[in-house]
Amino acid sequence: MPGWLSRLWRTATGRFGLIVVAVITVTALVSLLWTPFDPQESDVRNRWAIPSWPHLLGTDDTGRDILSLLMAGARTTVFVSVGAGVVATLVGIALAALGALTARWLRETVAVLVDILIAFPVLLIAMMISSVWGGSLWVVIWSVGIGFGVNIARVTRPELRRVQQSDFVLAAKASGLTAGQSLRRHLLPNVAPVFIVQLSWSMAVAVLAEAGLSYLGFGASVVEPSWGLLLADLQRYIGVHPLSVIWPGLAITITVLALNLLGDGLREATDPTLRHRAAEVHTPAVIA
Questions:
Q1: What is the rounded radius of gyration, in angstroms, for the C-alpha atoms of the chain?
Q2: Looking at the record's lineage, which domain of life comes first (predicted)?
């Protein structure tokens, strides 16, 4: 087992986040091949069935199996969170590198651009794009990815500048290391803890954004399984069948919590300064 993974598993927050994210990912993969029932199949004779066999979480107003809908909705959640994370990573690293490692005029231009873009809320951008191009999961992915890529750049850029002035980086430059090699070998590994926290936050917000936009009609289409769409369908009956609303809301809440806790755990597991401090704390003093 890699060292960082072993350290992650030893922390309670990291272990919880890793287990939940793994379960959701496996559920999404399994739902590609099997679900207890067809998620879109209606059975009016079993409308509002209480949690029991064979409908373990009950059914909705059209008789659809809620567990099958949640399993199928996990695919959408994983797709959106991973897609938004990839876009945010590419945008964030590109802007941070341009804002820290280039000529002064370009660094200042990128800094002004980041300040302008960060003033626009991610959900507002997604709703504006959806109103023009129509609601889809790709709108959510690109909106959240670009929006939080800017956040990642804003936080990572000063860290890159700080590490760039370190003695070991200056020595690497003197030895003939190119800017790209220095970025890959020295700069990115040292800003990884800060980057990981921001990335996990962007993936968590992507889950919330997809659920919220789908709830409002700007996200997933009605033919796609989505926790946000399921929550929107069931909330109309919360006064009559409150238990049915709990399941999609609980799935969204636990997923967002797990992604945030996993990010915190990864930061602790990969940050060399935290490991060094922990070693100093646990090293007994030598008494002469």
A1: 23
A2: Bacteria
